[in-house]
């Protein structure tokens, strides 16, 4: 007498040979899917990059500093590889949220600019400019009654 044949399938994700049953596989139309349950769960929980959204108010100060350091939205856009429209909408507070990949690009561009400013001794000049800008904004807010 022969031993019963146990049906086995190769997972396309992890390349493991697994027994065909509901513990190892999801089924569609009565057939097991291409990837095992473990691989499907891993795909849902582990991502290669930054996915999702962040509140724009958290990104606003970074974006302001980026534009201030580069001197214009156009230069900041070129350096960070973010569209001018996106930068302006964040600065004008028209967006309620921002993609995490955009935040990542802002942080990387800002890091590089800070590094180059430190090397070139532009740090003190920028701080003085920032102080003056803060004074101007404070005066405007006092006059407007905010």
Question: Would you kindly provide a written description of the structure presented here, covering whatever features stand out?
Answer:
- The protein has 146 residues and is mainly α.
- It has helices at 37-45, 56-70, 73-80, 84-91, 100-120, 123-144; strands spanning 8-10, 17-19, 27-28, 31-32, 53-55, 97-99.
- The strands form three sheets. Strands 1-2 form a two-stranded antiparallel ribbon.
- Helix 2 (56-70) packs across helix 3 (73-80) and helix 2 runs parallel beside helix 5.
Could you provide a short overview of the structure?
With 146 residues, the chain is mainly alpha-helical. It has helices at residues 37-45, 56-70, 73-80, 84-91, 100-120, 123-144, and strands at 8-10, 17-19, 27-28, 31-32, 53-55, 97-99.
């Amino acid at each position: 007498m022969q031993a019963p044949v146990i049906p086995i399938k190769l997972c396309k994700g992890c390349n493991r040979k697994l027994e065909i049953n509901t513990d190892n596989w999801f089924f569609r139309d009565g057939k097991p899917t291409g990837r095992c349950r473990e691989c499907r769960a891993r795909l849902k929980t582990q991502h290669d990059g930054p996915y999702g959204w962040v509140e724009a108010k958290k990104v606003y100060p970074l974006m302001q500093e980026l534009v201030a350091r580069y001197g214009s939205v156009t230069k900041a856009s070129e350096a960070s590889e973010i569209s001018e429209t996106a930068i302006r909408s964040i600065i004008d507070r028209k967006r309620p949220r921002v993609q995490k990949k955009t935040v990542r690009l802002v942080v990387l561009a800002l890091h590089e600019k800070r590094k180059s400013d430190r090397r070139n001794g532009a740090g003190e000049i920028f701080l003085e400019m920032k102080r003056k800008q803060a004074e101007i904004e404070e005066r405007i807010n006092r006059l407007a009654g905010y």
